[in-house]
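REVIEWER CHECKLIST
Item 1: Sequence provided? yes
Item 2: Single chain? yes
Item 3: Sequence as submitted:
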Amino acid sequence: MLTTFIRWFHAPTFPNNEDKTRSALLLNVVLNTFLLALPMLILGAILGGNVPRLERNITILVLTWLTIFGTRLIMLSGRLAIAGILTVTTLYIAVTLVIYNLGTIRAPATSFYLLAIVMSGLIINRRAIVWMAVISSITIAALLLAEINGFLPQPIFSVSISQGITFLVAFTIISILLFLAVKSIDEALTRVRLELTERQHTEAKLRASEERLEILHEIDRALLSAHSASAIAKDALIRIRQLIPSPRASVSLFNIDKQEATFLSANIDQPIPIPDTPITFQEYGQRIIDQLQQNKPWVVNDILKDPQATELDKRLAIESGIHAWLSLPLLDQGQLIGSLNLGRGAGHSFTTADAEIAHDIANQLAIAIQQTRLYEALQNELTERQHLIAQLEAKNAELERFTYTVSHDLRNPLVTIKGFLGMLDKDIRENRQDRIQSDFQRIANAADKMQALLSDLLELSRVGRIINPPEEIDLATLAREAVETLDARLRSANIHVTITPDLPVIFGDRSRLREVLENLIDNAAKYTAGQPDPVVEIGARIQNDEQVIFVKDNGIGIESKYQTRIFSLFEKLNPISEGTGIGLALVKRIIETHGGRIWVESEGLGKGSTFCFMIPNTQQ
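Item 4: Structure as written out by the authors:
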């Protein structure tokens, strides 16, 4: 019973909201103090004697105590803002009524206006201090005029005990609140120092990341300038060893039909022979091939302790001194075409960061190698020349755009973060509290922008190389799932979505096609928000004997000269609009991966837009 009673006086906690927990702790101290102090004031008024209109004042103090008790229940329910406003309001009203009944502003109770001003700033916000100061000043002035002109009840005031207790309680509460305020400021400064230290560590990591991006940029330039697969592999191996020190590195190409592996290029410190003719998958390591075909890296950090290693593997490891291996798959359109292989000596394991860096390079290397294959095929297959040249140019454009993003779009947030870290350090040293939050927000915005760009680039790089097994898909069900995912956005903009009942069953990658619908619906919502009656329609129609699926909106529309550009990578018609400009490029890549095509129809500005796509039924 006693434990439950004591626990009732504890402040509520909110594990996911540190600021709210801190505010609850402060408000809890104020309310508990009043719950204990008000009975003391009542007792002092009774013992002091000669208090005018004693019954009225005691009634006011009792009602105030009951209100504070109810306010504490409100606080325990989690509604801190209401509890704080009610506490300050109750104190203000109680003080005003007591002063009126006492008949003079010379009463000690007047000091509680100062307490109300301090409390409003601590438990509500800084603006509340101004409002309470203005209201209290006006009230005191009004009571003064009323006292001078005889509008207040006749004062009878000679109660030293009551006066002393009143002042003691008021100044005790004010002292406690000021102590808590100073303590909160000290804690805030401590957190700022800790965050500054973390920012400095982050800055060091960002410098390392910038160096990594610069090397990746050099790799991109080298890949773009090379004209043969062997030259691409050789140049990539030289540069990857700058990022991931490895005494042995190689690039292998696989012929899945013949079950053979060929070493395209190798870069090694020790003179270990590399086969110059194809070897079987069995010789290469069938378990390695199986792992890579699942688009998973093959990692072993001590081949001598690997239970799956053969005696031949262990003998070669001892002879070469290479005990740790990391192999990354090279994929094209989801098919394994080769691997990037790195080797280290005993005691030098590969980390997760090593695997991530190698994965980025492997993706670009796979694209570049496939580019070279396409280029060579163009020379041998004249009948497909135009088609293959188009693919090559598209891949080159994608690589150039990616290179630009690495060197420019991703560098800009890094420059912003670095600049504002310096400003933050200066503002903290100069104690410019008014600028610190702005510095933090700008750093966070830059980090969020870089994270969004990296996430979208990663998602775009996976399309066509990492795929799920195709299946039959009820498009109506898929559309409802997409709308449900975007429900919060659609409801917030009051957008009505209709799904026609004649949507077909299609065959493809379910998760990727759901991404298509989500992107198109989200795009429609973005540009219909603010319309008088925003509507998005998902439907299908037959056009030239083809099943065309469309997402139609009554938004701002698109001029004809932009209707092709919007599907380009990082293309945004409105530079200040949300997003990175990758969404429609991602949709186009997914549709084309399925063998289909996508386009937009619009009569111009203010006439709405209809995004259409068709996917052939490859199951037939």
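Item 5: Key structural point noted by reviewer: The first strand starts at residue 248 and ends at 255.
Item 6: Recommendation: ____
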